[in-house]
Amino acid sequence: MSHLWSEESQFRTWLDIEVLACEGWAKLGKIPAEDMKTIRERAGYEIDRIKETEKKTKHDVAAFVSEVQRTIGESGRYVHMGLTSSDVVDTAFAYRLTKSADLILSGLKDCLETTRKRALQDRNTLMMGRTHGIHAEPMTMGMKWLLWHDILKRSYARIKSAQDEVRVGKLSGAVGNYAHVPPEVEKFVCDRLNLKPDSLSTQVIARDRFASYFSALALLGSSVEAIAVELRHLQRTEVGEVREGFSSGQRGSSAMPHKRNPISAENLTGLGRLLRSMVIPAMENCALWHERDISHSAVERVIAPDANILADYLLWRLNSLLSNLEVFPTKMLENLNLLSGVTYSQAVLLKLIEKGLSRDDAYAIVQSNALRALDDKVSFHDLLKADPKVAKVLPQVELEALFDSKVALKHLDYLYGKVLGNED
């Protein structure tokens, strides 16, 4: 990815487009075959010379074109014929974004394979589900993996869609009307680069296309942060249900040898914020004066390499974290039984309603016993068993059946089918 956004890659892509444009002109009979042969053989550049020329031109593309023409010689007069700078720059930009998306999608595939594998491994691993940070009801660790898989699948779909949106080129001239370069040249270049001719461009490709791409990356950052934050919570000492892999010789703290900190999840949290921050300037780039200004240019020179390299690294780091994550089922069961059984309160509530009590009456009975169990640290089940209002309508055998954590497993086939069912 870093090579794709290097200075060398930029100039190489510009050169490819310039030479392809000449090929397009040659097919129309506007560049003699001998000149075209010379262009193919000699076209090149020296980056130092481009930079030296740019000191005079104050224009990078003009300096680049001059350098390419120098390397070719007399036949170089055909280079950049009918084109404006943005024909080259925007087509190259779209091309590199398309290639970047390929790498990011590959990274997402790796993460999806990991989450799928681990969702199957932890399918029946019981744990406590939490809402507002408070114990709610039993669930499975497999459901967490399944959720992360589903989130990343949506990121994959968004980036794939955004890739298709930016997979366009434009060689339509100074205001996009093809006055000095025919559509056939544009089509020839785009076909060779596996791009589509833009549906309509001014001097530039409309920036909503690129904003869509950076929006997809921003949402990827948010999704990765969501996973990372959850893993940070699960690693807290008081929870202790998962732990990041720890390599031999690794140190969690310079001062406290016992520390095994969730550094990967914390890094991903911060990097997700950084990646997300780049969407605002991308969106603000959409508003340009008339057929073009260059207010977008400086922005894209920063956010394009930064966002793509960051997204690529983010996914590599995430997959490493997920692949090496340690899961502790015993600790999960310990936490599951931490609150004297009150997490089965909804099952009791619904059963009392089924037995004929009003919802308000049933809620009051269950809540009073649950709060007492929490405050006095006594068995919720035993309190309900001793409550005459419960005993009156609910036989003991039915009460016992309500305190079964495996109820959380009964619809796993349905949940897994929804998320993984079409992936085989």
Description:
The chain is mainly α. It folds into 3 domains: 7-81, Fumarase C, Chain B, domain 1; 86-245 and 252-334, Fumarase C, Chain A, domain 2 (Up-down Bundle), CATH 1.20.200; 342-402, Fumarase/aspartase (C-terminal domain) (Ribonucleotide Reductase Protein R1, domain 1, Orthogonal Bundle). Helices cover 63% and strands 5% of the residues. The protein is built from 18 helices and 6 strands. Strands 1-2 form a two-stranded antiparallel sheet. The protein has a two-stranded parallel ribbon with strand order 3-4. Helix 7 (183-192) links the parallel strand 3 and strand 4 (196-197). Helix 6 (141-166) packs parallel to helix 18 (412-420). The chain starts with 6 loop residues before the first helix and ends with a helix. 39% of the residues are buried. The mean pLDDT is 95.
Key descriptive features of the protein:
Fumarase C, Chain B, domain 1; 424 residues; two-stranded parallel sheet; elongated; 63% helix; mainly alpha; 18 helices; two-stranded antiparallel sheet; Fumarase C, Chain A, domain 2; Ribonucleotide Reductase Protein R1, domain 1
